[in-house]
Amino acid sequence: MFEIVSNELIGPQIYRLRVRAAKIARKRRPGQFVIVRAAENAERVPLTIADSDPEAGTISLVIQAVGQATKQLVALRPGEGIRDVAGPLGHPTHIEKFGRVVVVGGGIGTAVAMPIAQALKAAGNEVVAIIGGRSREFVILEYELRQIADRLIICTDDGSYGRKGFVTDALTELLASEQFDLAVAIGPVPMMEAVCNVTRPPAIPTVVSLNPLMIDGTGMCGGCRVTVGGQTKFACVDGPEFDGHQVDFVGLRSRLGAFRDQEQEAHKQLDEKCRLK
Questions:
Q1: Which of 122, 151, 235, 258 would you call most buried, defined as having the most Cβ atoms within 10 angstroms of its Cβ?
Q2: Cα torsion 99, 91, 72, 190: sign
């Protein structure tokens, strides 16, 4: 069992769990993830490692409770344990001194973007971060990113905090007057695709982190396959990060919606089960 050290609510149905996993904490690099199971017969859930403390032997996981498996995870209290935490998995982010880097995080994707921004800054890059959410309460990890980035731009869809509009609006405005050597975009698929459409004309290399359907984390199940540059890749072993300008986002969106009916039925059953308790 992997002990829960702390469980903190940081947004609507968004929790940060600090989990004791000493070996993973020592080996983990930015961009990598773990696959967890709350209990013996629970669903396997891929989660990016948002942070780690090798001295304390802990890793931090930011989880949005959207289904039965994630709700089961965030219901765990300090002192309780997660049955399985496998990792670190995936290729780490390629970190070097590029120059000026813009890191764009949307919603829960901000938790993935934060350790990458931290590593890029430590490598000597100038880092501008753009993060966003539907409204103020959905903007997460603002304090942490202010400690990392040279500049932080916050966007909300409804204008309740920061500037009103999407992160792509802020990015478009930024690129109209400033030059960057690299862009990193992490968030919902439509957001990442939109960022790539903004960075493609000025030919700014753009990295995206993909989280398609993933079961085993070894490439065996084939559920996380994506098309990149016309070739089939598996996000769990070839990624999760890819050249955003080469990703087939149309195909990716189609695969993500493949089990929509089953997901809706599972939500319905879970809601009914909770109602009867």
A1: 235
A2: positive
Q: Both tokens of residue 45?
A: 């859930």
Give me the CATH topology for the region 95-199.
Rossmann fold (3.40.50)
For position 269, what pLDDT does the model report?
A: 57
Query: Residue 29 corresponds to which tokens in the numbers above?
Result: 């690099």
Q: What is the dihedral of CA 78, 81, 84, 88, to 10 degrees?
A: 30
Omega within 30 of 0 (cis) for the link into 190 = no
Q: Which of 113, 144, 119 is nearest to 10 (CA)?
A: 144
In angstroms, the CA 94 to CA 96 distance is 7
The order of strands in the sheet holding 45-53 is 81-82, 2-11, 14-20, 58-64, 45-53, 33-37, 84-89
- Judged against a pLDDT cut of 60, whether residue 183 lies above it is answered with yes
pLDDT band at 68 (very low <50, low <70, confident <90, very high): confident
First to last CA, the chain: 27
Domain with CATH 3.40.50.80 in the chain: 95-199
